[in-house]
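Protein modeling request. Please complete all fields; requests missing the sequence field cannot be processed.
Requester role: graduate student
Desired output: 3D structure, token encoding
Chains: 1
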Amino acid sequence: MIERYTLPPFDKLWSLENKYNVWLKVELAFLEARAELGEIDRTTVELIKKRAKFDIQEIAQIERQVQHDVIAFLTNVASYVGEPAKELHYGLTSYDMVDTALALLMLEAGEAIRSALEELLESLKKKALEEKYTPMIGRTHGIHAEPITLGVKFLRWYDEMSRNYERWQHALENIRYGKFSGAVGTYTHTTPELESLACKKLGLKPAPTSSQIIDRDRHAEYILTLAMMATSLEKIATELRQLQRTEIHEVEEFFGTHQKGSSAMPHKKNPILSERMCGLARIVRGHAMTALQNMVLWNERDISNSCVERIILPESTTLVYYMLKKTKDNLDNLRILRTNMKHNLELTRGVIFSEAIMLALIKKGLTRQSAYDMVQRAAFKSYETGKHFKHVLLEDTNIRKYLDENEIDSLFDLQHYFRHIDAIYKRVLG
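Delivered output (430 residues):
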């Protein structure tokens, strides 16, 4: 049964309430750093922490008047804190709080995605081991090529998603930065020491340089990595869609007892999960282009990136998390049609062994071109006559000058194509 679930990490994570909670957490961390360095009395900090709270509806009312979300937030918090609120946001600019909080939110989303990615990797590894020696035809240009195993296909996906995992680790470390450097990044009314201490309290590192904001190449890398991840998932989904085609029908998505495939055609069983993954990947890739454009801002900043990030960060993280979960479900419940795989292996009546025949002729002394031409003529005759490729070879007097019946027969050994499977697995899994 396909697992049904919601997206609890992201329903809460990107909510207004959580954003304001994290904003307040950042402000309080800066106050604690100031107290630790003797700039403010600790009793005042404790009083502020005790009183500090906010009301979302009140913030919205204030923002309608002032047209500035951070001022609306600080005004609302100050109404609860009272006179000591003058110490809130002291020496800071809006994005000292916003960007530092954004890093925390992106890291929280990133951890949920990392966990989902780890689960998918386990599923891919399990499938790769289970189907290690399941024979199937390999295809290039959509045409039968040479035999492979289904396990190797899963192993390739595992290997690629492992690289996505490494990239994601790097992207998370590169977003683990905060800033408290003031209006243009020069610490006019704060200090690098304060910044370092406040960031440490939040589990972040201070950005080595900043303008009014943290430079957006960090955020672009984060979303670009999500886009690569989504595209890898689309690659898997595209392959599953191809293999479920009626003419191929080697795998099949889970189809529930009461599930329907078409309003018009009762016979239909469509690969809807895989199709959905392909569609969602397009959205995430589009956000990657937008993230790149966000890197370019006027002078020490403008706010053209701000409204954009309120869309692309929640959407990209939520969609990739969902895609990872759904892809795992799809693979865990995938129906593998081994009989059809065997049928398709034999569909072209042995011409898939053509390279082995050509190389055997070359070993007998023929030039590559001569051997190629001889085998190509035999393969095309097999296509045209419907005879098995082996029989055509046995009837070909030119080929029989070089290869006897036993030699030809030995070249149709399927296991020959799988003799290095263990070596491939060892490279990937160790």
